[in-house]
Amino acid sequence: MNDILIAKEAESLTPRQRMFAEHYVSCGNATKAAALAGYSSKNAHKLGSRALQNKKVRDYIHYLNRKISNQQILSAAERQKLLSEFAIDKNEKIPVRIKAIEILNKMSGIYLEELAPQENSFEGLTKDQLKSLLL
Question: pTM for the full model?
Answer without folding.
Answer: 0.53
